[in-house]
């Protein structure tokens, strides 16, 4: 960190949604001053006066601001936690206030897309060139070098209720992992480290697809055996597409992969699971999105992976079937009957 002393400086968090607030509270609990960025001045003022954000109480050590320059100049370590659809725009605004000494550890579980999916067809297929993880966006948009991500089974509501959990801080830099661990760990929040940044990011992104599917199983009341079957096959699909996009299989077998997959595929606290559940009850994807206040990243990810699986010729029957459900080309009931007939080969073919 050059001559700067991290512990004396506040920590920045960008995005005052469910997870950004939960992360801010974890940081603040450790006697750490936190500056939390809210998108509008009105929201920042409201949060500062009500001391509540996204239904979570705000710790006294958290100051809410609408000033990105203030965050950039006050904080050496910043946790960006905004939905993937807005991440690049946020980075463009923040970048003028970032320097190579900054450390950014993001908590976003979605892709950045630099092309309109409507323009994608057989002649112009979607490729990895069109799709970025958030660490890649940070690198492209700023001078920051030391980049990391935070991913694991971290349902924000449970974290706010101070229930035990663990996460993975991933970075190519051990220093970033150490900083993340020191800032976040407490007696009920364990922090593991990984150098497989892309692999860990892909785990968090891809599990959202399977969580949507698991929600449909719960919605149809198909039972625990079916859910276990779906999660297991979902993990295999995550590994196959994850490897095609630059991840290693090992990451998927850990906390950020199978751990987060199990948590989000089993809980009504997961927005992605909830989307699937509501699809199974007969709502359309437009109706669901329209009425949801929080982001369910999996819907966009289903569309992206459906295209990428074709480009890279990876068998992704679950993603393709979910894509047909959200496009109203197939009912949820028919989708599950179809998947039960799908000709799978070896059970585990990625080791
Ligand atoms: N909730 C969870 O349990 C977890 C979520 N995540 C991931 O974290 C990310 C955020 O999720 P979550 O916090 O739950 O989402 P929410 O939907 O609860 O909140 C998103 C927040 O981001 C803010 N925001 C949007 N665009 C910008 C921007 N350009 N600049 C600053 N703030 C912005 C929104 O502000 P506004 O209110 O103004 O729209 C809103 O407060 C997602 O990628 C999600 O997958 C990861 C782990 C757990
Ligand atoms: O990623 C999460 C928990 O680890 C949150 O999942 P949802 O976005 O589905 O709520």
From TrEMBL:
Catalytic activity entry: sn-glycerol 3-phosphate + NAD(+) = dihydroxyacetone phosphate + NADH + H(+); sn-glycerol 3-phosphate + NADP(+) = dihydroxyacetone phosphate + NADPH + H(+)
Entry binding sites for NADPH: 18-19, 39, 109, 156, 271, 295, 297
Location relative to the cell: Cytoplasm
Name of the molecule in the record: Glycerol-3-phosphate dehydrogenase [NAD(P)+]
Record's keyword terms, sorted: Cytoplasm, Lipid biosynthesis, Lipid metabolism, NAD, NADP, Nucleotide-binding, Oxidoreductase, Phospholipid biosynthesis, Phospholipid metabolism
EC number, UniProt record: 1.1.1.94
NCBIfam families (UniProt xref): PRK00094.1-2, PRK00094.1-4
Enzyme class: oxidoreductase
Major location (coarse): cytoplasm
InterPro entries tied to this protein: 6-PGluconate_DH-like_C_sf, 6PGD_dom2, G3P_DH_NAD-dep, G3P_DH_NAD-dep_C, G3P_DH_NAD-dep_N, NAD(P)-bd_dom_sf
Active site: 207
The family this protein is said to belong to: Belongs to the NAD-dependent glycerol-3-phosphate dehydrogenase family.
Recorded GO MF terms: glycerol-3-phosphate dehydrogenase [NAD(P)+] activity
Residues annotated as domain Glycerol-3-phosphate dehydrogenase NAD-dependent N-terminal: 11-172
Bilayer-spanning residue ranges: none
Source species of the chain: Marinoscillum luteum
